[in-house]
Request: fold
Amino acid sequence: MSERTLYVDVLGGAAGDMLLAALIDAGAPEQQIFELVERVIPTRFRVRTVEVTRAGIRSRALHIEASSEPWRTPRLPRMLDMLDGAGLPEPIRARARAVLERLGEAEARVHGVPIEEVHLHELGDPDTILDVVGVAAALDLLSIGRMAVSSIPLGEPGPAMLELLRGFRVRSAEVSGETVTPTAAAILSALGEPAELPDFELESIGYGAGQPRPRRRPERRSRAHRIEAGRARRDRLARARPRSARGQHRRPDAGARRRCRAGGVRRRRARRLDHADRDEEGPPRSPAVCPLRAGRGIPCAHRLL
Reply:
């Protein structure tokens, strides 16, 4: 089977469990995914997916029943050893390891310590391993070769979050609190690349939702995102760039046409004045430019000489 392209449209935020739920909603076999996760951390929890509604859209979310057994958060090298010794298929192991190493590198840079000494604290919980290994397994089972990521909404990001998203397009979420978790940021940055919606044949769509938020923080309850999977029709993704640079000329509005017509009149007048002033001393008149409305390409725009 040829490789497919995945586009992650981060609507209101992202978390590791949301990414995994969206991949399952798009067709990844959840039973196989959870069996692979149990190779790394057996008997830590029971997981299933449930259908929920977020902002009026049917989505899928993870329902996790955690084990009551105590868990001692390991340092990063120990987590990597657990991953390497689980007998996972190589593509899944490599992807999961890349995400954990990305997390460790960001924490090491922020705190100024060697990566071997990084302690991930709550990021070393079983939930993180579930999200990371689960997403890696889902991508492999869906034959995903490329993952493109939309711009990412940020609320109040911490230093590690900003480090993880270095090089990615971000936008203001206009809400307080966290809209993207460190686990999700590590997955997106380690396995994906910033891009617009690629040119591909759309085959499946999945919606992933997070856990409901307390009522006292209603602005954080709508966090959700969408993924789209298909087969690329071109060999490379459409890189993010302004739409006006892609040849998508828009019809100018009436005001723009009037300004351009007026510019033509001014150009003829300027030429007459230029001929009349050729024998006068002093520098030539400054060039003028037909005004362009920001973000709109006007075909009749010209430079007055």
User: Anything to note?
Assistant: The chain has a mean pLDDT of 74.
